[in-house]
What we know:
Blueprint: E1 10-17, H1 23-36, E2 41-46, E3 64-67, H2 77-91, E4 95-99, H3 106-117, E5 122-124, E6 128-132, H4 133-142, H5 145-156, E7 160-164, H6 171-184, E8 189-192, H7 200-206, E9 276-282, H8 289-297, E10 303-311, E11 318-324, E12 327-333, E13 342-348, H9 352-364
Parallel strand pairs: 1-4, 1-5, 1-6, 2-3, 2-4, 6-7, 7-8
Antiparallel strand pairs: 9-13, 10-11, 10-13, 11-12
Bound molecules: guanosine-5'-triphosphate.
Amino acid sequence: MKASDETYVTPIYILSGFLGSGKTTLLAKLIDYWQEAGLKPAVIMNELGDVNLDGLLVKQEVPMEEMLGGCICCSIRGDLGVTIHELIQKEHPDLIVVEATGAANPMELLDGVTETALYMKLDIRPLITVVDSAYLMELFDRQQGKTYRLMQEQIRCASVLILNKTDLLDSSRMQELLKLLNQSNPYAKKIPAVKCEVDLAELLVEGEGAQGATDEAGDQNLSQTHSHYGQSDSHNHNYTHNHSHSSHSHDHSHEHSHDHGQDPHGHDHHHTHSHVMVHTHYLSGPVDSKAFEQLIAELPRDVYRAKGVLTFSDTSSRFLFQYAYREPDFMKITPQGDIPDVVVFIGEHFDKEELSEKLKALEAGTLLAE
Ligand SMILES: Nc1nc2c(ncn2[C@@H]2O[C@H](COP(=O)(O)OP(=O)(O)OP(=O)(O)O)[C@@H](O)[C@H]2O)c(=O)[nH]1
């Protein structure tokens, strides 16, 4: 069956995982894998900030829709259906991958995709969560409130867990991690990995879960199986989409009242990420690499993710900058098109003002002197 056929049921994969866990790393590998199999994947990327730097890591020929400036599971959830619809109409992809911002609650996201599957022919595939193994263990030790709980939700929803960044854990910590994950989600297949280096055929097959019954013959690469969520038979029904998004909306009113620390009343907050803050700073020109490295080394603990595109005054190339779990990473890039120099910081209740001052000093060349 071809993607351009009216009857084609488009498989849709959701990649979940905390900020900086390795979702984009996995996405790049999946795209290669599918393309080698002669398939045309399309991507929906969601970023909290207003620039999509992860998109720079995805090949240019892959159709991509960006959903920026909000979290896909919450503030821009209503747009998800429209985005999926447009992508299918325009590109006729063989499959779609949604890479959600790491702050997204996958249950909400799944709900959004499910809603869309009521009026579009979608086969929702079992959810893959990429776990930042080292960061999860650190938070487990500290039993840190909301971030830890969000990670737990991302773990609980998954059919497959990629335990990424195992290079940062020794074997006894690894055993602890497995024990922890077996408690949180005994059903999911757990695959340890470094840089999401996993057997992708196994990953995608394992993701089909215990049910495993195929209802479409012939298409080996994309067999239509029943997912854990009972959604895959959505293509047997031709629902009219006659309910408004608002009928599925959730009560957001509690969101800001429990922003600090644990909720002593044990309320089950769906929007655990409401405390996540984003600070975007467009740079006025090249900056000194040493000064930038210092700024990064001095970032408060509450900034747990940063990305950017930078030009350094003391090097000739431009760089894609990544910072996750306090590890900075620089990759030489030659971006196509008009990509500004920009840095995006993501974290919890950090002092934006102070960071902004430091960035200004960096631009002015006075940071090291301070
Ligand atoms: N040490 C280590 N670093 C890794 C591993 N996998 C990925 N990284 C690094 O972690 C950073 C984040 O990786 P991404 O793939 O961009 O993570 P992401 O989940 O897409 O990040 P967001 O889109 O911000 O949520 C990059 O600097 C990667 O090079 C790993 O197995 N070990």
